[in-house]
């Protein structure tokens, strides 16, 4: 097996909005950068599926000054209970309360919010991306939401990613695409100092030595039978970080989509947007049960992202036998003009290929495992994890939910911290034993290829079935424990029999997936333990055996580590610095906004 | 409609690191509701225990990475409905990595030279006033996802040791992308000079692109003609090239074999009459006896490489 040694200052793992932002910034700062991307920059991962590019209504003033003022205000607020200006207060309440269920650092909300308002828009069109304008030449966002679109809603992420792709490829940054970083390497000090990389196209192995490592592997993974993640997303970043001692948090706050296509299978990622439409109408999607009766009008709820409410209402339908989690219910836009919908949204033009008469008519849907609010825990001012040298960018972190804007901001912060470390620290030597162990793991898979056994994709699909049965919406301790037992079975009875179909070094996806399986098992294990630990329901985390939201006792992160196969949990209170929810316990299902 | 309960898939297999010649493998796949070609490929991969090489990421016509040839036509596998009998092959005109996965890296390097972004000295701060009417042409073209399904439908300039020789003939996908920026009123790059390098004036064989774009772009009317008009004040004059053959490019030995008709393909699978031959300047080609060899003789795309 070919192996090369490579050396760089900053290793960026991941090629979406966060990874591109980090790589371009570190490159601009003069560091040598290597990007390792499991899929292709801007074309895989969560970025190409993003619907909108969101900013907010302007706050007047120059960014550097506002940023300094905000930080000074934040520092002062640590000792003096200062009132937050109304505009900022709304921002915190919406982002912290509605989007993050009060499990987010509110100073981070201010920092990222300000950057998104002041700086993100200029970055968007700098290289010629075009945010749809009206005939007067103003960005098209008729309801003042500043949810802009590139080409159409549903394709904005692709176009942003594509624009970044060309920028990275033309920048001189070293790039390895369709190459998977499968193990982070640590030095004698325990610091992250590189990664082992397997190039899928030719099977070559690369031991990459770096002085800073930035993980930017995104916020969604194909861990369940139905999921929004792209083909390659297998929680590699989360698993690798946990293995070298990083902490993870909020893993139980897993989002679901209630309105993704039920068929054909490949189109389970086709999203029928339930939120406020950019088309100027006040009408939104309507959900229909198996008999065609409307059971939910999304516009009846005063919230920009009605995703959790959709799940609550669907749960009631499933309980009554009027829908299944994987079909038998429908999403449509009967009150929205079909032509307007088609001209502003990407998904309706898929309809005529199916069995629909018109693009606003109800389409059969199923739920999908979507993004996780959870991820690796980091210092949100530096993006450094508990492992020195290991930084993160974007929603692979447990500090935020996602979005191209937030991911891009994180990339800048991570790059600055990573380059500072490059300038400060001398490189450590790679540990030959770690490299040897990685080589042996690959060699062991290859040497047994072709033997009678179970292919990695079968094991992956088994894990996805387990998650689908017991770790989706509406969880119980019984179901979660059953899933843990089933995962144990996978480890003990399927893993030893896992065999690759071929030992070719060319595009051997069996080999990549054999590595994925270990990561998926570890991460699902942590997700389940986190879900068991949170004995309440919050946002998309619904425990049937604890059907209440407890704002007195549960404004806490569930922080997870995993060492030698053992998950350890600690609860860390989340400071509600500027805004807080009403204390007390509320009925989760009865209160749509809980 | 007469959709069969069972889909018969004839899958192209070729691993340049292990195989002397390509072969076709037969699979029966049960039909599922509204099934796409990608669903059938995934079924084979997941359920019929065959780790063939194919590329896809999103499944919903965003990533542009699942282009293949189905029954002789270039398609996106996630978008194309299944047919009862499907021969699935890699996209033509790109070197094969393995089975259905092709290598587009040479294309992407070439694409970067066409300045695939808006070049301007002093971009204003957002939001620039930009009436949609001025942006409409560029905006509509931006729906191109560079899947290269169109690139696979036209004769290419030639084959070199690195793959396709794109000089002076960038192919339709690159020209669409180029036109998207050339038609952007904000752009200040020297587009006429780039257009000449990309072969905008030379590309006339637009008839074979009708209805091929999975995003529904009319490549001649929306991209080529407006770009020619804006940059050179010239109309698009269609012409048909004599050579209609397309080639599969085998990496490793840098061999190529000529496109076959379905009947020829069938006879190939049945009899295994594919014969390796040496072709000057290329390496090995896999050719058939009879008509295909004549087709090979007519292939300017290959002949030009020697």
Task: Write up this protein.
The complex is a heterodimer of chains A (594) and B (306). Chain A is α+β, with helices and mostly antiparallel strands and 594 residues long. Chain A has a domain at 254-371. Chain A contains 14 helices and 22 strands. Chain A has helices at residues 17-28, 63-77, 86-99, 106-118, 120-125, 156-169, 236-243, 307-319, 338-344, 404-424, 432-447, 456-470, 477-494, 509-533, and strands spanning 3-13, 33-37, 53-54, 147-148, 174-177, 179-186, 192-199, 205-215, 248-249, 254-261, 286-288, 294-297, 329-332, 363-372, 375-376, 378-379, 384-385, 390-392, 548-550, 556-563, 566-573, 585-587. In chain A, the strands form six sheets. In chain A, strands 1, 2, 5, 6, 7, 8 and 18 form a seven-stranded mixed β-sheet that branches. Chain A has a five-stranded antiparallel β-sheet with strand order 10-14-13-11-12. In chain A, α1 (17-28) packs parallel to α6 (156-169), α12 (456-470) runs antiparallel to α13 and α12 (456-470) runs parallel beside α14 (509-533). With 306 residues, chain B is an alpha+beta fold. Chain B folds into three domains: 6-102, Roll (Ubiquitin-like (UB roll)); 105-232, Orthogonal Bundle (Fumarate Reductase Iron-sulfur Protein, Chain B, domain 2), CATH 1.10.1060.10; 253-303, no CATH class. Helices cover 27% and strands 19% of the residues of chain B. Chain B contains nine helices and 13 strands. In chain B, the strands form four sheets. A five-stranded mixed β-sheet of chain B has the order 2-1-5-3-4, covered by helices on one side. In chain B, strands 7-6-10-11 form a four-stranded mixed β-sheet. Chain B has a two-stranded antiparallel sheet with strand order 8-9. In chain B, α4 (172-182) packs across α6 (219-232). The longest helix of chain B has 14 residues, at 219-232. At the A-B interface, α5, α6 and α12 of A face α1, α2 and α3 of B.
